[in-house]
Amino acid sequence: MSLETVKAKDLALGQEFLTWIWFRSERSNGQWRTTDGIPFGLTFEGRVMVQSGEGEYLETAVSSGPGAELHEAKSGLLRGKKVHQAKLRMEEDGHGWHVTVKAEDFSTAGFKTPKVDFRLEEGQDPDGPFLEKMYLLERALFFFDQMFFNFLKLRFSSEWNDELNAVRRWVDATTGPTL
Amino acid sequence: MGFLSASTGLTRYRLPDEVGDEVLSNVQLRLKRFAFVDIDQSMEERSFGWVCFDDLLDAEWATAGPEKGPYLVFSLRLDTRRVPPAVFKKHFMIALRERVAQLAADGKKFLSKDQKTELRDQVRQRLLMRSLPIPAVFDVVWSVRDNRVYLATTNTKVRALFEELFAKTFEVELEALTPVVLGLELLGEAAEGRLTGFEGSMFVPIRKVVGETLGQTVMRSESDDIGEKSDGYEKDAS
Fold first, then answer.
1. Which of A88, A147, A131, A130 has the alpha carbon at shortest distance from A112?
2. 3-state class of B206 per DSSP?
3. d(CA B211, CA B222)
4. Can you name the residues that pair with A83 across neighbouring β-strands?
5. Which end of chain B is flanked by fewer CB atoms within 10 Å, N or C?
6. What residues in chain A have per-residue pLDDT under 50?
7. Which residues make Cβ contacts (< 8 Å) with residue B141, sequence separation at least 6?
8. Contact at CB, A152 and B186, closer than 8 angstroms
9. CA gap A107, A109 in Å, rounded
10. Which residue(s) pair with B79 in the sheet?
């Protein structure tokens, strides 16, 4: 498979996944569970970029605001756009992570974990704060992978058609009757 | 911007091929073989290589070894000499006028294209010698246990540089965890065909024209056909 084709598949899969987690998060008020039943929160926060087409027909719309309403981006969904980049907030036991994820390669920007104190106390392992930071980074990535795993299982199952209709109804409903 | 910053950019990789014990037991030696070489006192435009995670000046790992708990950590240091375009433009203009004046004194009128190119290179070299290399450091964390390598940047050029140097140092290729690659890892090789043949779904509601009266088109969405039927999501909402 050519590099261009692989990139196109990555983009299609990534965009569909990010759009789906927006839908799912709204439906479940941001409440998710890992396959082992561990609860965590995931909401779209503040900024989302939606995109459609390619080459000279590429169209992008960026929507930002304080809440998760992001009406302009949702209007884009109605015109066939999908989420290309999104700022996500994850939560577990009152601790919060912020991260911006790109659909095309799942690279992450502005990755903020719960605060880690780097002032060492007497007798503390000098690598302690680093290990804590890595634990927190990997925790958020674990939640992300869990969501992707759930998406893939559903996407390649016979239940996808029902889910697809639900997403379409959400797209229709969230953009209002005038559109 | 590194792993210990309040906010970081991150690219994730995995190693598709197994890394032998010979490599893992000689990580520090291999890092030293491709360690960063300082160019402050030379005329080199660019230098890059590995340095200690805890100290960007330490290319000998005297401060600390690369092991931290279950991770191997080190940093890619990239120093680059740059001449700002406005500075170059000004000095090229000065040099050009001097050369034209010199030619006029010799009774000549024109500077050839090749002579101009040569002058341009001379000015650039002279300015590069006077500019200090700008250092940049990109942290690397290798979780051997989980077969993950994290690079603290999403910059495409730095990623390419890193991937090449990592392959040279450890004799193993990295694979970025893009959606298809991550999907393969989560679902297993059996899902390869579905992932590489992936075609996106249409999320736009399929609308149908159901009537047209006095120029007014009445639109009806596909969801109207389903009426109150549950979408099947609520019952398994987590």
1. A88
2. coil
3. 15
4. A50
5. C
6. 178-179
7. A134, B3, B71, B72, B73, B149, B150, B152
8. yes
9. 7
10. B47, B135
pLDDT of res. B215 = 42
Q: What is the DSSP letter of B24?
A: H
B204 min Cα distance to partner chain A (Å): 5
Q: How confident is the model at residue B122 (pLDDT cuts 50, 70, 90)?
A: very high
Instruction: In whole angstroms, give the CA distance from residue A10 to residue A7.
Output: 5
Location of structure tokens 């939606």: A50
| A133 and chain B in contact, CB less than 8 A | yes
Q: Which position has the higher pLDDT, A173 or B55?
A: B55
Distance CA A124, CA A131 (A): 12
Q: Does B223 touch chain A (CB under 8 A)?
A: yes
| Assigned token pair, A97 | 């992570």
B122-151 residues touching A, CB cutoff 8 A? 141, 143, 146, 150
* Residue in the structure block whose two tokens are 């393969």: B184
- Name residues 58-77 of chain B within 8 A of A (Cβ): 68-69, 71, 73
pTM for this model (two decimals): 0.84
Q: Is A135 on the interface with B (CB under 8 A)?
A: no
Question: CA–CA separation, B80 vs B48, rounded Å?
Answer: 9
